[in-house]
């Protein structure tokens, strides 16, 4: 009985440490905070609106960005001038978020998807047309260029892009937003080994990447 109690207590301690590690900042071995850097830029000649939707596990939330007007506990929006940019401070905290331009995150929107500063994993980034397309986006991730997208079609060979409706990268298995199933326009290969990857993964466990998301062109200025 005592061994069982100790085992349960040990599991509870591990779980508590795991949760705490997500809530705390990521630090290197010297105790210095390690943080990924995110910049959002508008490379068009028209003003834009940036919409952000946060994952439920994200430590960075709308309340942490004074420039981003909250529209719910997990969403916010802010204006971005033509040819302007905005730094998105993370301070070493975990960010899980989806970003869209000129339309809220959802059906019909091109999305930039980010998972950064996760103490237990590597940074990831991609451009998703799974829900649809309304703008061409590009991402620079530690110097690797993802996108830019080429409209709503023609993205089969574009690095870091989930083509239109292709929810598993190489096929539209269970596509949302009324998009039909199939493989036309998706990447070649298999879900976990596509010929052209749909997602970028960093090389540094726990963060430290530099990410720049750019609006290149929009159908809805």
Describe the structure.
It is a single chain. With 221 residues, the chain is mainly beta. It has a single domain, classed as Sandwich (Thaumatin), CATH 2.60.110. It contains one helix and 15 strands, in the order αβββββββββββββββ. The chain has one helix at 2-23, and strands at 37-42, 48-54, 69-72, 75-80, 85-88, 95-101, 111-116, 122-128, 135-141, 144-146, 161-162, 189-190, 193-194, 200-205, 210-218. The strands form three sheets. Strands 2, 3, 4, 6, 7, 8, 11 and 14 form an eight-stranded mixed β-sheet that branches. A five-stranded mixed β-sheet has the order 5-1-15-9-10, with no helix packed on it. β9 (135-141) and β10 form a beta hairpin. It is globular, with a radius of gyration of 19 Å. The model is unreliable at 1-24 (pLDDT under 50).
SSE layout and pairing:
Blueprint: H1 2-23, E1 37-42, E2 48-54, E3 69-72, E4 75-80, E5 85-88, E6 95-101, E7 111-116, E8 122-128, E9 135-141, E10 144-146, E11 161-162, E12 189-190, E13 193-194, E14 200-205, E15 210-218
Parallel strand pairs: 1-15, 8-11
Antiparallel strand pairs: 1-5, 2-4, 2-6, 3-4, 6-7, 7-8, 8-14, 9-10, 9-15, 12-13
In short:
The protein is built from one helix and 15 strands, in the order αβββββββββββββββ. The chain is mainly β and 221 residues long.
Amino-to-carboxy terminus distance: 67 Å
How many structural domains?
Answer: 1
Summed over residues and divided by their number, the pLDDT gives a mean of 88
How many E-type strands?
Answer: 15
Structural class: mainly beta
> What CATH architecture do you see?
Sandwich
Q: Strand fraction band? A: 35-45%
Largest sheet: 8 strands, mixed
What is the general shape? Answer: globular
Number of helices: 1
**H/E series, N to C?**
HEEEEEEEEEEEEEEE
Q: Just give the CATH class.
A: Mainly Beta
Named CATH topology: Thaumatin
Rounded Rg:
19 Å
Which spans have pLDDT < 50 for at least 5 consecutive residues? 1-24
- Helical content stands at under 10%
Q: What is the CATH homology-level superfamily?
A: Thaumatin
